[in-house]
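Fold in tokens:
===
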Amino acid sequence: MSAPDAAADSQEQQESVNTHYDTRLPKLKWSRRIQIPIIAALVYSVIRTLGPTLRYEVLGWHHAEKVYAQKKQCIWAFWHRVIIPIVWWYRNHGVVVMNTTAFDGQWTRKVIEWLGFGTAQGSSSRGGLRGLAVMARRIEEGKDCAFTIDGPRGPRYIAKPGPVMLARKTGAPIMVFHVGIDRGKTFEKTWDHFLLPMPFARAAILFAPPIYVPKDASVELMEAKHTEMQQELERVRDIAEGWFSLSDAEREEYRKEFSA
């Protein structure tokens, strides 16, 4: 190998690998590679067919509007379970989503990019720090970022630290939310209890107030902010999941709370 080639190879290795993370795509068998565009096309077709039939009620969106009025971007955090109803509702806004480099992430990346999202390659297990660096640059460029916060493979409903780290670095607040559906299929054998809404289902999206992380936050404060994020994620999940079993009076009380 010539000296220029060796230098280029060394630089490539340094860019793609560090002590803890590897952002290079894993090598897949040809039988797996050919599945990626097929699965992506099928999933995209389902979302494009189902999405226009869903009817949304949105509570707490004014929190995001206040953030944008301050010329800041949002760091969205939500449970992997509700990815279908939310990617349709917020399609074509250029939000950058943390996306795993594994097989599932490769077809998922195609789907969400077709729906008008951006992607940052990385996850808690592969390339996480590199993905966060990409997200920080996108926030500086005026893009929102988002995490399926218990992804890519769980444990279910246990929040990863990525949003808190990104919020500390960029000054952008963390915005958590959940989506409740009145009619849908929960796949209980999947790690995330994946939710597939039925056609013409009603959906309720609940947004919590922003969580800010100071740029000089200590380790103790970072842990406290992570706990706050976990608690807010659980609270909006519990309210949204039970939304359509509440009485009209109970829903009205929550409407008042989330509009305050």
User: Anything to note?
Assistant: Strands lie at 55-59, 75-78, 96-99, 118-121, 145-148, 174-181, 184-187, 194-197, 202-207. The first strand starts at residue 55 and ends at 59.
